[in-house]
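Predict structure. Chain length: 323.
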Amino acid sequence: MTTATSLFTPVENDLSQLIDNLTTLVEAQHPILGAAAEHLFSAGGKRIRPAIVLLVSRATLKGQDLTPRHRRLAEITEMIHTASLVHDDVVDDAEIRRQVPTVNTLFGNRIAVLAGDFLFAQSSWYLANLDNLQVVKLLSEVIRDFAEGEIQQGLSCFDTDITLEKYLQKSYFKTASLIANSGKAAAVLSDAGEEVANKIYSYGRNLGLAFQIVDDILDFTASEEVLGKPVASDLVSGNITAPVLFAMAEKPSLKILIEREFSEEGDLQQALELVNNSDGIEKARALAYQHSQLALQDLDCLQKSPATDSLVELTDYVLSRIK
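Prediction complete.
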């Protein structure tokens, strides 16, 4: 099976340089805050978001070398993503991520919140120094979307009336916005033109939605070792995702279990069985495929190149995680 690492061959050296720079960029005066930030960037991860920025940069620069601003944009993208994960872990009271203790587990919620705030502030500082107002607006919108997505998720816990449209909107805010807007920002820095920039935005939006839907499927089908967090953690916390939405339409008794917040013995196990014995996962898989195909169509604006090929292959890779 194709791995994320092999897909990123055209920007392998760029990613290596990015990882070396990240810890330096977030150095803080206070040693605990610095240690928290260093822990974040040493925790691994596929670096998919900065890799997409670098791939879009190379695809739209048409053979020219990356500029320092393109490289800095990729670093800013990873900082913003990491900051959002820190805050997510505090909100979710998560103890592990990527099979390592979370910042809130190691340093407490107060330091974790401050570490996330610090990363957002640092990313905003470096963003302003790119001296491109359109790019500043695009990435500032992402930070706003993260907050909006978290608020929506918090207000809709155990809400069985949530619609597919609302679910996709929340998924855009929490996942797709960063991929869409940072990709578009890379095209803007390349002076690729409005049409190409908008197509790249659409690619990132559709790829991000497919990615989130697949993540929501894996919450039911993957092991804790693969997930790096407890299985069915979304369902336990009342987060209604695509497989559950589709399953509820088919198995009305699932709504009852969710609405009483799994308060009776055996409720959660029964809910998991209802989801697994419905067409919910298959319908969610079809929805992810639909968005991956839309993302593929968006790439017709780019000339063929190794970077473009990788962006194309990413649309298959996203789905391959659940095969």
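Summary: The mean pLDDT is 90.
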